Model the fold of this input.
Amino acid sequence: ETGVTQTPRHLVMGMTNKKSLKCEQHLGHNAMYWYKQSAKKPLELMFVYNFKEQTENNSVPSRFSPECPNSSHLFLHLHTLQPEDSALYLCASSQVGQSTGELFFGEGSRLTVL
Amino acid sequence: GENVEQHPSTLSVQEGDSAVIKCTYSDSASNYFPWYKQELGKGPQLIIDIRSNVGEKKDQRIAVTLNKTAKHFSLHITETQPEDSAVYFCAAKEETSYDKVIFGPGTSLSVIP
Done:
């Protein structure tokens, strides 16, 4: 496996379900991110983990809960979501301290909330 | 905070023609401007970037220009090919910041064979 891998690629869930999205990076980076991509909107940063420390993001509803057990793995736990949460969720990684901090994205998890 | 606008939202060009996508930013502290390309079913991928101490940068058929005074930057693709069809995102950030990349809303480019 190379780059950033995300599973599952597609997920359909009801509003009362609990599910998790998984991300793994094979690049040796020290920062990982969750972005939300909705149609016709800019990529929206949800959470950042730098050296396993989460940057607070007070604008994300508590029904989204991130977990970063180590620098290579990142999870997004989902519970009691709303239909408006349907979107493509992108995971990314970067090397903090490198000149530009290029983001390397996974292919995304397409979430549909019924 | 930073705000990045991008135009047009959709763009269709004939194969071989040029395509231009324009962005504006609001925060004068931003000094690094990457462009990402997202193909269907894939995540965005960096294709070119420019720093604020440079006015233009070229890489084969793509080029970026930056006007710091006007807070404008643009992506130029020449001799477009069908494989250039994708969504393109401009972004702005202060170079040493890792968590404050602000993306534009994207431009969907279609290259018609």
In short: The interface with chain A takes residues 4, 9, 32, 34, 36, 41-46, 49, 89, 95, 97-99, 101-106 of chain B (CB under 8 Å).
